[in-house]
Amino acid sequence: MTTTNQFFPCGNIRREFIWQMGGGFAGLALASLLENEGFFTQPGHAKTLDAANPLAPRPTHFPSKVKSCIFLLMNGGPSQVDTFDPKPELEKYAGQPLPQDKQYINSGGRAVGFLTPAARKFKPGGQSGLPISDFFPHTRKHADKLAIIRSCFTDTHAHGSALVQMNTGKPIIGRPSLGSWTVYGLGSENQDLPGYVVMLDKRGGPIGGQPNWSSGFMPATYQGTLFRPVGNPILDLRGPEHLGREAQRQQLDLLAQLNEKHLAERPGGAELAARAASYELAFRMQAEAPQTVDLTRETAATLEAYGVNQEPTAEFGRNCLIARRLVERGVRFVQLYSGGGHLEDTWDAHESVVKNHGKHALETDQPIAALLADLEQRGLLESTIVVWGGEFGRMPFSEGAGKPGRNHNPYGFSMWMAGGGVKGGMACGATDAFGFAAVEKRTHVHDLHATILHLMGIDHTRLTYFHQGRDERLTDVYGNVLKEILA
Amino acid sequence: MGGCGKMSTIGGTTLLLMLVVSVETVCADNTTAAADADFERTVAPILTRRCLGCHNTAEAVGELDLSCADRAMAGGANGPVIVPGDPDASYLIERIAAGEMPPENNGKKQPLPEAEVQMLRDWVRAGAPWPSARVLDRFERTTDVRAGRDWWSLQPIRRPAVPADSANFQSQNPIDSFISARLAEQGMTAAPPTDKRTLLRRVTCDLVGLQPTPEDVDAFLHDESPDAYEQFVDRLFASPHFGERWARHWMDVVRFAETNGYERDAEKPNAWKYRDWIVDAFNSDKPFDRFVMEQLAGDELPDRDESTVIATGFNRLGTWDDEPNDAQAYQYERLEDMVHATSTAFLGLTVKCARCHDHKFDPILQTDYFRMAAAYWPGPIYGGILGGPTQDQLGYDVLGWTDLTRDPGPIHLLQKGDLHRPGPEVPPGTLSCLPALHQEFAPPPADSKTTQRRLQMAQWIVDPRNPLTARVIVNRLWQHHLGEGLVRTPDNFGFNGQKPTHPELLDWLSSELVEGGWRLKRLHKRIVMSATYRQSSLHPLAAKYAEKDSANLFWWRANRRRLDAESLRDAILQTSGQLDLRQGGPSFYPPISAEALEGLSMKSGGYKQSPPEETRRRSIYMFTKRALIAPLMTAFDACDTTLPNGRRDVTTVAPQALALLNNEWVHAQSQHFARRVVAAASEPAGRVISAWRLALGRLPSDDERTMAVAFVDRQRQRSTSNDAESLAWASLCHVLLNTNEFIYLD
């Protein structure tokens, strides 16, 4: 324990210190609130506590312009060979079975069909000529911003565990999610909004639910907050109709008086002062949070670009626009789900890739392109990374003759990143000739996570959380930064 | 492989014995007594501390094993590393002197201090003498980087003498003698006793998780008899709600939830029977050793019955993926869950850290992990549709555990945890960190249907000579009464945990527990009757003492505590007059707003709320769905259910304020509360008195009464509702439910 970690050093000495400050995390959270509300006036004292403030912005491990991450999670598993990983061999061998030497788990015991070419044509995009299929004509215009990682793989073939793995690193539930780690590591730039926001698809949450945005063994302070794109975005943001803002202000004033009297009889009650202060912060959040989903000040051109006012882009377009508004306000981590619930309501194209991906691509392509353009135009693309992908990919073969769907494939799939620190217009790694398994520059979920943290200025080996005797990491003992895609 | 101590082929005898026996034959005698002593004093500590972490027999990084003379002299992958008599020609010295060894840690070099390098140099120059039969064992002794078998928590419990009281302090309770002795050393004194009203609320919340009623308060305040407090405490111990309160603490430790998690998040049928079993166990004061035995091996007990089989539900509570990627590999995840739950709950050890390699900080070998895992190996850990045995296999319609066979195949250690690199077969047995109790498990008797491995593991855990079991549970009791444990990391008594602030008191309480037949209520009573427990949370010298001991490690005052999520919800229901105290049976599904249900893949279709009359029951009866824990509970730090947790975080964040300010359910309770208040008196002043008594257990001050009446007037005036009067009172009641006084216990 000779090294010190600049975030939360986990040597014994540091731990003793935290305990003596007043009971582990209780003490830390407390210090945060008191700090914000200016309860500590002694500079020495405040400085010590500032380092332990759980949501205040914290320094990165090394310089990075990136402040935020927008993770576009294509729930259900988009097919790589139909989107970002062209495989001409599939034309040649169409109708034949996958060669016998390929071992795989046939998820769900579905019918195993024949090698099937891409559902849509690939065309080169941008200066780089990066091939992207006709499912994404709008995104293709931004090809020069994208680093496509064609060699992703994960450990599991079932949606539930694969989603949890994409979010937390392991297919076992109970670990903190990527968003939790970033907020834990970097804090948040805006104390009036949650630091880690999750927006679901209207059709439902991801399979597995809450563990996908859980803070696991970390305090609940770091869990993702579900954010709704209309009205009152956060749970319990508004009281009943009969209690207006003015009446509530009267309540808070009475509450403050009662709490002050209580505190006066209990000198030094720092936790009491902190809790009293949290009501004022909550009152401000009530005003601030709805503004983030109020799009009335956005221009008609912006709304049009995102497709907010027309189907089928309205929902995802709105979510993308809100994602921009959130990162503009300093929210650290925003995750948007495309697809919700089960099967065809997600990218889970068992029935037909043309139909399924056609629908979901149409809903998301224009909004995603608009988001990239908007971020760039506002100078936010430098300080934001955008990540696109699903929990796994799909098989290069069909689910039977005349059945144009594809089954789950954890062995090889594509994701892309764009924005601050990402080298655009490039493809990294490769799958085999059929797009079945990653073979070159194989990139595990841990590697993706290591890379995302790296782009945000965090060394994934040094971001640790001490839990039950172990310095836990997002990437456990694994993870390599994908240097190839760094600008 | 082979090695100094044949560690790779665990035989039929104890580990320590084997080391001694085999070493005799492997390591040659080439030293003198004086050199032996030198080696022991200078070289052995350096090698043990700096080198053996990697260059041990099991791992032998670079094929180099520095644990005995023979292997050390043989060298590594590049040949010999020690040339006796010639340090400059010794690769070991070269690498160390260059600061290349030990290797970088987290990107930081960690060169040896010059003095240590010199010692090694001198040793090599002197011919590198290594005492015969001396095998360095990195688990033998505690160093500054890891614990050995001499670690405090692994040493036998010896009942310490109760410290003599000083002239100005006459203790009625040995607990206070221990506490005051330490305070006296520091020149400190305990806080004065707290007032009766505060004490009554404190002890009621602690023992039954409820608020004292206004009638309780009146009766207690007027009872001048010297044993009024003890009588009240005895009533609480006799209350059936005692078991509910303490069951909730245990449910955190055993990762209780009623669904499996993952894709289907299917319900664990009958999990509630296990919850009721805990409540009954605490109410009937089941001896703790029996409590452990039933949970680990209730199916293997000679007097097995439905209740003991229900208790084995402990082994079924973990998450379970019914569609794992690889069923073969997933077995090992299930083993980890059960090993982790068992070792955390009962032993305060992080055995799971030794799944892939020897423990980095505690004397727990990878072999130990597999010895313990072997107890679960014969169970239904592979595939299946239930995640456990069927009703037929159990003999009852319960959620329990049992072996599928009395004769399972061997379990092999997995090198680096890799399924495809099986190591030696590991026989089932106890952990080697308690050498005096270390044994392999016997094969089951001829008439047994099961392996009786869990039974033997449980017997080892509750063996009075096992020092961990009593210490761990005693510490948990102390923590839930006093706000922090004597060991402040209740689930980790290892190197990375905290050491006890009062080791003698911990051992005295542990001896008391074992000698008192493992009865917990007796111990609970000792604690709540102590002056330490009964002192005020305010100390006249608080400002001065806080500079020295802000964390209250010496117990110079009572800790102020926030009600936990369940107690808070129960207190709100109790205040509103809505609490339904019916006990036991299937859990209720609380109302969860449509917005929160959006997080489920089935949305509201995946959730069916119970009828309103069910949802007024105590929070312990709330259904715990892993894909969706009730937002009000998680907001107030109800813990994650995937891992055992003996100590919840207590955070103070704005979303908690939002929940209590705006949540629909909280408003509904405020209105119920207001109805009681309005019915209690026709005059505003009388209503205010009623509100204060119900929520805070006291009368309002004159100031408060005036403020409250004025507040109700203002709220009434600005309302346009027909119902302005009752809404105004509901608004006042709502404010009271939000006060610090309501949510904090002094």
Written description of the protein model:
The complex is a heterodimer of chains A (487) and B (746). Chain A has 13 helices and 17 strands. Chain A is an alpha/beta fold and 487 residues long. Chain A has a single domain (69-184, 194-230, 296-485), classed as Alkaline Phosphatase, subunit A. In chain A, the strands form 5 sheets. In chain A, strands 1, 4, 5, 6, 7, 8, 11, 12 and 15 form a 9-stranded mixed β-sheet that branches. In chain A, strands 2-3 form a two-stranded antiparallel ribbon. Chain A has a two-stranded antiparallel sheet with strand order 9-10. Chain A is globular, with a radius of gyration of 24 Å. Residues 1-53 of chain A have low confidence and may be disordered. Chain B is mainly α and 746 residues long. Among the domains of chain B are: 15-138, no CATH class; 287-462, no CATH class; 561-651, no CATH class; 662-745, no CATH class. A two-stranded antiparallel sheet of chain B has the order 1-2. In chain B, strands 3-4 form a two-stranded antiparallel sheet. In chain B, helix 12 packs antiparallel against helix 17 and helix 27 (664-680) crosses helix 28. The N and C termini of chain B lie far apart (61 Å). Residues 5-31 of chain B have low confidence and may be disordered.
Roughly what percent helix of chain B? 40-55%
Instruction: Give the overall form of chain A.
Output: globular
Looking at how many chains there are and whether they match, the oligomeric state comes to heterodimer
Task: Note the beta-strand portion of chain A.
Answer: 15-25%
Structural class of chain A: alpha/beta
Care to count the β-strands of chain B?
A: 4
How many distinct beta strands of chain A? 17
Order of helices and strands of chain A: HHHEHEEHEHHEEHHHHEHEEEEEEEEHEE
Gross CATH architecture of chain A: 3-Layer(aba) Sandwich
- Taken as a percent bin, the fraction of beta residues of chain B is under 5%
What's the pLDDT, averaged over the residues of chain A? 87
User: Biggest sheet of chain A, open or closed, and with what strands and sense?
Assistant: 9 strands, mixed
> Which regions of chain A are unreliable across 5 or more consecutive residues at pLDDT < 50?
1-53
CATH C-level class of chain A is Alpha Beta
**Count of helical stretches of chain A:** 13
